[in-house]
Each structure stands twice: as C-alpha cells, then as structure tokens.
Amino acid sequence: MNFKTLTGxxxxxxxxxxFLFWAVLYQLMxxxxxxxxxxxxAMMKNQTTASIIIVFGSMGFAGIFVGLAMWSxxxxxxxxxxxxxxxxxxxxxxxxxxxxxxxLTIASLEVAKEGLVEAAVMVNLVGDSIGGLLPIPWxxxxxxxxxxxxxxxANTLGNVIGYVITALxxxxxxGFWLPDNDVLDNIGFVIWIVMTLTLITAGVxxxxxKN
Length: 211
What we know:
The chain has one domain. The protein is an all-alpha fold. It is elongated.
C-alpha cells in the first residue's frame, strides 16, 4: 500500500467513524443534553457505552485531520502550492486539539466514577473549552487545501472536490462567529454531512486512481 492509497483509506473511513459515533450513536444512546453537567450525568447512566463511543468517535474525528494533513502533504510533494504545507500543519494542530478535548471528556467520566461529580463537570467543561478555537485552523486549512487541490486537479471531479472543500472552509469560518441557535445547528449538521460525503469521495478517488 503506497502513501496515496493509505491517505485515501484514511479519508474514506475516518469521516464515517466520526459521523456514526458522534452524530448518531452518541446523540441517540447517550443524549448528552446542552451543558457539561447534563453530559456528565448522561455518561454516568451508560458508562461503558459512553466510553466505547467516545474512543471510536475520537479516533474518527482526529483521524479526519490526520487524513487531511496527509492529503495536504501529498499535494505539496507533487509540486503544489506551499500553502498546502501550511494546511498540513494546521490540520495537525486540529488533530491535537481534538484528541486533547476528547481525552478530557473521557477523564471527566473517570472522575465522576469516583463520586466527584462537580469536579467531573469542570473537567468536561475544560475539555469543551479546549476545542473552542478548533474551527479557526480547521476552516483556514480547508480553504488552503481546497484551493491547492482545485489548482492541481486534472479533471472536473477533482476541481469540484477542491472547490467544495474551499466553500466548507468559508462556511466553518463564518459559522464560528455566529451565535448558537437551533436553525444554525441544523445547518451545521447538513454541512457536516456534506463534508463527510466530500471526504469519502476524495478518499475513494485516491484509492481507485492509478495516477
């Protein structure tokens, strides 16, 4: 398996893991609520299930950024813009923030098991706060990667993938500054689905491409 094929598999698999475990299973089986306190309480009711979902969901979510970093590095090594190298570094930062945030979510569950519920809520809150700026490097990385890929793409599908990635980055950046509400949450969910499908498509293209 060469680097291109490995990158394709990472891009194809990790978005599915992230969406399945975070967007579907975690919401349906844990029902975390809107606050750190309700999330800790919900995890305590389903400790084993919560741990499994968080671990696999974290692997998928952080893995997305690893795949994006690999993709960006590929573009740079194939003579693409140096901006794709910057994108790779931004995605590594994103992966680090994602793992740190999710590690504290797991840690809050362990603290709660010791009966220190208030402390567990604080740990969970810190975990959520660590990921507060994640959309900034994420969105900038998407724009840089998307433009670099579109410029280097040899066919229409490649151009479309590049421009969709770029548009998603712009939407992520704009969404960071907007206040939370149900409408924006629903729009964000649709954007997540579009991102998932786009990354899967990009991954499949890399797996099947002979070039």
